[in-house]
Amino acid sequence: MISVACLTKGSTSDEAARYLLNGHGADIHYSYHRMIADVFLSTAEGKTTYSIIPIENTIDGSVGLHTDWIVDEVNLPIQAEWVYPSIQNLIGEAKELTTDGELAYDRIVKVLSHPVAMAQCTQYLKKHIPHAELEHVGSTSEAVRIVRDNPGRGWAAIGQVSAAADNELAVLETAVTDHDNNFTRFLLVGSEPFTLRDSQSHKTSILITMPEDYPGALHQVLSAFSWRRINLSRIESRPTKKQLGNYYFLIDIEMSLDTVLLPSAIAEIEAIGCQVRVLGSYPSFKYTASE
Questions:
Q1: If 0-12 CB within 10 Å is exposed, 13-18 middle and 19+ buried, where does residue 265 land?
Q2: Beta carbons of 158 and 117 less than 8 angstroms apart
Q3: What is the CA radius of gyration of the chain?
Q4: Contacts with 253 (C-beta within 8 Å, 6 or more apart), sequence order
Q5: Where on the tree of life does the source sit, at the highest rank (predicted)?
Q6: Which of 18, 71, 196, 211 has the fewest CB atoms within 10 Å around its CB?
Q7: Which residues are within 8 A (CB) of 39 and not within 5 positions of it... i.e. 6 or more apart?
Q8: Per-residue pLDDT tens for 148-174?
Q9: Closest of 218, 213, 290, 212 to residue 251, by C-alpha
């Protein structure tokens, strides 16, 4: 049996986990947590096989807190990555917030959701419910549960269809995100290699710390990849938290560590005094709606 730590049931993380893992001949047990720290620690402490981590979003970019956990707090290699659509919906009690089958925006007093999900629906909220109070909670599924437990108060939540069904609430309006191409990139982290699915696409993620007082180090790092024609899908700087102005660089490489070119590029980077830490070399899965 494979055990997986994830954010709360009915969240985008939950739906994304089931997209990757379910239906591939394995017995999956899900362990749900309200806080991302508890998701990480569940696997780091050996209670679960893997953790499901949302790491990047089309609209909001990288999730800095989650990145810092991977880099600074736990030693959990990346075993897979995949993308999943972040489709947010307006959820509430239909008989309370509709008139003759039509959504009555003026009846909505408060909207609750996770801050990232709320930010993805900014224009929708401004256009249709500018009068409503906006309240951030720990997850979209928690927002739906709070609405369920507070009937008659004019509250609605932004969340997933599965959470609405679990809590016997109605989807008042579908796809309320401001952009149609809103996807979230997820990571599967843990000590065991991921073998349930195969992919023709592989990536390697590395963390590079530059040597001090070495002008042009970043240029030389990028040159090591450039002349070998190794494609980089992402470069991100994050503070080392040791001194103001000190950064490390996270680089996602569209190549497996098993190839000939990548280890030699890393060796060249280390030769100029950079520290290189491999965060994982793993299969990468694109979203297919029919799955």
A1: buried
A2: yes
A3: 21
A4: 203, 204, 205, 206, 225, 230, 231, 232, 233, 262
A5: Bacteria
A6: 211
A7: 5, 6, 7, 33, 51, 52, 53
A8: 999 999 999 999 998 999 999 999 999
A9: 218
